[in-house]
Amino acid sequence: MKKNIGLIISLFLVSFTPLTYALDWSKTELHLANGKIETPQFLGGGSASTTVITLQHASGWKYGDNFFFIDYLDSSENKGFNDNDYYGEVYLNFSLNKIMGFESGLSLIRDVGVVAGINMARDAKVVKYLPGIRLSWNLPGFAFLNSDFTAYLDNSKGASGGGAPSENDSTMIDVNWAYPLSFGAHNFSIEGHIEYIGERVNEFGGKVSDWVLAQPQFRYDLGKTLFDVADKFFVGIEYQFWMNKLGDERTDENEVQVLFVLRI
Question: Lower CB count within 10 Å: N or C terminus of the chain?
Answer without folding.
Answer: C
